[in-house]
Amino acid sequence: MTVSDEPIHFFSRGANSLVIDLSMHQNNRAKLLDVLGATGCPADALIFSGASELPVYNSDTVWDFKQESNFQYLFGVKEPGFTGLIVLDSRKSYLFIPRLPKEYAQWMGEIKSPEWFMRTYVVDGVFFIDEMEKVMSKELNVECLHWYDFSNHDSGSALPRPSFPGSSNFKFVDGPLMAHALNEIRLVKSAAEVEILQYTNDVSCRAHVETMREIFSQRLDVMGMEHFAETNFRYHSGLGGCARVGYHCIACSGINNAILHYGHAGEPNNKRVAEGSLRLLDMGAEYHCYTADVTVTFPTSGKFSQEQKIIYEAVWKAVLAVEQTIKPGVDYRDMHRLSQRVILEELIAKTKIFNRTIDELVQHNICAVFYPHGLGHSLGLDVHDVGGYQPGLFKDKTDLSIKGLRLGRALKEGMVITVEPGFYFIQYLMEELKADPTKTHLVNWNEIEKFKSVGGVRIEDNVVITSDGCRVLTDVPRTVEDIEAVMSGKKIWNVGKQYRVYSNS
Q1: Domain boundaries, the chain
Q2: What is the pLDDT of residues 190-208, one digit of tens each?
Q3: Measured between alpha carbons, how far is 42 from 36 in angstroms, rounded to an integer?
Q4: Which residues, in sequence order, are CB contacts of 409 under 8 Å at separation 6+?
Q5: Which class would CATH give 3-187?
């Protein structure tokens, strides 16, 4: 089969994977044009730079390629080095592609024609990048370009202004007008996007369940290492057509569960797993650049200890409390506070960790010591997706009750978000609390010693907000009883049969 014979404007990775109609990106462009048309965008066209391959230092190899998220949302292009243009008046879209040397075919594969790209990505025209200046000025009558001028709220980083041969001859409109519009559009997912995110969740959940069972079996010595979980998850995700994960795999155990972003280069999931310890696996498969973000916590032995069970069930009750409350119009900051309160209430009822009433603990923001991250975030093309705060608004850093929360706004139908409360025994935070004369008396430090080996518990679901509540996209064993039964082989878990739907009207 030659390139020209391949099916056009569809993406899939085989018969058992999800088939995506790439016209969804054409629809995304139309949404952006509709919004900007109402705001009076001061430009002739919108310009977007796709990602380029990056060399590994000074070698002749490259880093694993991922498309820039805005470019992916609007064009769906899997190849590197492209530029996209959307002309406002005509509402037409164009791709500008690299002009490849003939030697490319020898090393990299058949050189596709501009016509192939036009059909595949459902655009109105395709030209070479070295033709950009001429095409835009002579054929499209473009003089003024608006680009994505915006600093990401989470990273603080910004994309560079697009540059191409002759770009100095065009006027660029700075400012966040277009970025704000695009972020808000990306925040609310279409039915096609929700289908992709459901698929990434299904693949991730199957990989998580298989990994839980493999860890319990302990048939090989390597299974006793933290990194085995990551390897096994990636393998099963790959079988589902997901060649990438959406973020580095967190595959910790025991006291390492208290390290929130474990699994990075400095702590690469490389400790031996202590017998009887809890595992905390935060891993999500990616498909067409959309990622799941799923966390499971379970006992290596297949049986929770009493201390592990108490902490786990307190966090699980917080998950349920949030999912049984959220709906359009609910402020996620209130849900973060609700999750903290539920955990504290459970631990007051079942342990002697805290010495005071729930209201006193909330007043002193004690839960933030043991639950220092936010309840959740927007999810989509980025694991911490755009739109966490409304355009022009930022997190109130003086409000310590929402410290670490990436999503601080009222929910909308169609948003896909994470619900991920946790409780951790983080040594330096506990030492700071213990040394604080105004707060140390709130905690029973002898009781803390009984629970420190738990390390930490996090439970993370991905949910889509519906018209009156939410639908949980994540389907893994969650109750203590189900986890223990599935790990031991007493219960078969068929992903897709246990979706939870809540009507919270």
Answers
A1: 3-187, 191-503
A2: 999 999 999 999 999 999 9
A3: 9
A4: 331, 332, 387, 388, 389, 390, 393
A5: alpha beta
β-sheet bridge partners, residue 126: 95
pLDDT for 263 equals 97
**What angle is formed at CA 261 by the lines to CA 260 and CA 265, rounded to 5 degrees?**
145
Residue 395 tokens, joined: 């997190």
The first and second tokens of residue 182, run together, are 């695009």
Which two three-digit tokens encode residue 42? 């001061």
pLDDT beneath 70, residues of the chain: 1-7, 219-220
Span 191-503 CATH architecture? Alpha-Beta Complex (3.90)
Phi first, then psi: give them for residue 230, nearest 5 degrees.
-65, -45
DSSP string spanning 423-459? Answer: EE--HHHHHHHHH-TTTGGGB-HHHHHHHGGG-EEE-
| 3-state per-residue secondary structure call for 165-232 | CCHHHCEEECCCHHHHHHHHHHHECCHHHHHHHHHHHHHHHHHHHHHHHHHHHCCCHHHHEHHHHHHH
State both tokens at 213. Answer: 């069972």
User: Token pair for residue 253?
Assistant: 């155990």
**How many CB atoms lie under 10 A from the CB of residue 383?**
19
